[in-house]
Amino acid sequence: SDVGSQKERVVTEEEWLEKWEMGNIGFHKEEGHPLLQKYLDVLLNGRSGLRIFFPLCGKAVEMKWLADMGHSVVGVEISEQAVKDFFSEHSLPYCEEPVPEISGAKMFQSTSGNISLYCCSIYDLSSSIIGKFDGVWDRGALIAVNPCDRQRYASLMISLVEKNSSYLLVTVSYDPNKHKGPPFYVPESEIKSLFG
Questions:
Q1: Among 94, 160, 174, 190, whose Cα sits 20 to 30 Å from the Cα of 87?
Q2: What is the CA radius of gyration of the chain?
Q3: CATH number of 102's domain
Q4: For the chain, percent of residues with pLDDT exceeding 70
Q5: What is the pLDDT averaged over residues 148-176?
Q6: 122 is in an annotated binding site
Q7: Do the annotations mark residue 17 as ligand-binding?
Q8: 97 is in an annotated binding site
Q9: Known binder of ligand: residue 8?
Q10: Residue 4: left if φ>0, alpha if ψ -120 to 50, beta else—which one?
Q11: Per the annotation, does 27 bind a ligand?
Q12: Residue 44 lies in a domain
């Protein structure tokens, strides 16, 4: 498949942090994502009290929405500002602690205990640190991951899900020759080869 000039494109952690610092976060949805509401039944599959993972979570409002429904939410985000903004914008008290297994990483947890956000690179995480999940809401993570890291990302995500889990994935479709990304164009054939 033709991914244009995107195959070689690399966005650094510094660039993502700068987007948050400058408020250049057009990818953030204040009202939550309509596709999650539309496909919530698919994610939950009639189950309650799930562990739901938000890769590259930013300050996604859906985290509070799902936690308020009784689910346990875990997210990972490189920007500490995004994580702190999430808690302050929802007036949620939280505590902050280091993650012993990951140098420099922090975990921010709501005092109610049902929302835990890790501030580190997603590639520093593993199921031995954060456990496994019943559901994943991948709203903008795969399309934000550098194309050269997609296989690594998909392998990590597969290692983090339980056998009967649901994985909701949102991508974007456009001509990759006209936009350098992110968001990156990920053709459906590649999604199938990554996730099976």
A1: 160
A2: 16
A3: 3.40.50.150
A4: 95
A5: 94
A6: yes
A7: yes
A8: no
A9: no
A10: left
A11: yes
A12: no
